[in-house]
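Ticket #4471: complex job returned nothing on first submit. Input attached below:
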Amino acid sequence: MSASPPAEVETLFGDYPLDHAFDEMREANGDLRAHYRALAETLASLPHDELQRRKQSADLSFLTQGITFTVYGSDEGTEKIFPYDLLPRLITAEEWDKIERGLTQRITALNHFLRDIYSDAKILADRIVPRELVYSCRQYRREMRGLQVPRNVYIAVIGSDLLRLNTGEFVVLEDNLRVPSGVSYMLTNRRVMKRTFPRLFHSYGVRPIEHYPQLLLATLRALAPEGRPEPNIVLLTPGVFNSAYFEHTYLARQMGIDLVEGRDLVTHDNIVYMRTTDGLKRVDVIYRRVDDDFSDPLIFRSDSILGCAGLFNAYRAGNVTVTNAFGTGLADDKALYAYVPRIIRYYLDEEPILPNVETFLLTDDKERKHVLANLDKLVVKAVGESGGYGMLIGPHSTAKQREEFARQIEANPRNYIAQPTLDFSRAPCLIGNHLEPRHVDLRPYILFGDKVNIVPGGLTRVALTKGSLVVNSSQGGGSKDTWVLQ
Amino acid sequence: MLSRVADSLYWMSRYLERAENTVRQLDVTMGLMLDPGGASAETRWKRLMASLGNAADLEWNGDLDAMARGLIFDSDNRASITYCVNGARENARQVREEISTEQWQRLNRLFHQIHSSNAEDQFRANTNDLLVSIIDGIHLFKGVTDTTMLHGQGWQFIRLGRYLERAYATATLLEVFQPDLYGVPEREHSGYQYLEQVGLLRCCTAFESYCQVYTADISADRILEFLLLNRDFPHAIRYSVDSTLQAIQSIQRTGGRRPPEELTAGIGRLHAMLGYTTIAEILAGNAGMFLHTIRQQCMLIHELIYRYYVQYSIQSALTV
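Support reply: We reran it on our side without changes. The output follows.
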């Protein structure tokens, strides 16, 4: 189901390189993929400046809405507009079906894993996952041992990062089980997109995602402590200086719940209250956007004032639900990631639907040797970092950087993993007046309350710099709307 | 409503009201300086500083342009217009989920406007244009606030901030102007005296409303009566105090707690003071003292609101 593009489409593409990486829009021989045809033709039919005009109006819309994020480590201009590409990324119904099944399976297994680790730890006794890997993980929380969480759900909000390899197959690069962000961009992208290409959007029959806040609210409600039929649900933010503050305000507003900071909360007799103008009001569910470390100075980092003293004890007493639970970062540790396929087989007795990326564990002498000899070809990542920080991309690195990483690996092999440099897929982006391919990933958002729920789509992140493989917003990445077709 | 949120909305509103007041007074003062005669530029500037509560602390150095620029743009000066707009936006940013998108966009635009290089150019070309456009921005924000926001507790805290700030600022202004209004012993109807009096009215956007009530026959006693005791004019102290009282009552109606005696008594006393006193009585007594008492009462009410709604002790809240 493909055909050579008509002449007008060719003009728009201009010099559009195709090589071994999978192109979302075109086949290896240059033909358009069938489901991209209507998009390409619409683009080609627009008058010369129309695309630019629509882009400007979309940009302005983001600017006045103040849709921004904060970049750490730069002094001035810390509020930035999230870069945005005008062309949607399309995913067919079959492709999505597999992604949805694969993620549901994966999240279910990871949740089993967390419950097991924090109770009987059978998987360790059965020697499926090495004991030392779990207990040496910085995200492992001893305090969670034996603690009963509502509905046994440890991870209620998840964002997993997928890549598409040159075989066309989707693989999971990492799972974000702590405080994944970006969902507000998914939602605002869609709103802007509907205004920018209304007719095209309609003709494609795109599956909706706008009900995400409602689903999230239902998820949080499902996890309320027993005996609290009308739970008071709040979103806990670190405050206005956090990079995702816009998202926190956005979600709170969309769900109609209070956005609280640590200083708004007090605990008394193991019950959490918030300070309101009408006095203290009991809090039942906390959707936490503050890392474990900063959540309760009595249990975790004592120098942090972002959380609420006594929160953990109230949680332990079962008087408040905090989600995601504490210590879930254990299961997205990049070294434990290598064991996820085994975890899936162990708990569900199924083969993983979505494969992992090949991963070298540097604690293994043989693998470490191989990695150190091939640093220029591999990607090295620190296991506890996210957001594209603490990473070495071999082919794009200098000898000095490689030396530095080699030294750090030797000093602390448990802290790093290595993966092959992936040739992940590229999608057409509007660069100047024509289309150029850029690398993209896909972060679907998964909700887990009484059951697993995934809104069709997610955030497609784009490495907007030519040839770059880094899609993180903190490192020059942008995003695209993602259309899952019916 | 969260106490922190109420506090931020209250301050957002107070800062904007303060910015507007400062813009208008600066505009009027610069206008008065155009006419030779009357008071000297230095006296006028000092009076402006005093009526802004002396927070400005800008010593007169003879260069009006530089002084005005400081009062508009110097973001380190707590009295400057930029400082107030920054404060309003910073407070709004922390309660982004509580205010409407329209409010946020409006305030954001005002913020960007005053920080753009355009604003400096406009200042040099025509200061009055700049000041008018800032006031426009603030008016638009207030309009959008009233038309797009839920008129619940949050809105009442915004109202509370606006009117408490206004009552206090107008009382300060009248207290400072008092010696000049009555300083001329024989009521000479010189043009300068007239300009001075109209200036005072314009500081409160009151000139046209005054004329509707008293005709253009302007006298110091009537000005005082109008700005102090009129119940229908939004910049009059009585109107502001009545609105403050209504806001507090609405907040109490929607909340579950009984208000403390002190707060009810404090605002009630102020309300009665302005409602049941005639201008003749005030003038027969010590008018300056009267204005001073109003200011003190406003400060007291501010403290009580803060102590009761925002920074209450946990112990007191648990025993209720």
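Residues 360-420 of chain A form a domain with the Dna Ligase; domain 1 fold (CATH 3.30.1490.270). Closing as resolved unless it happens again.
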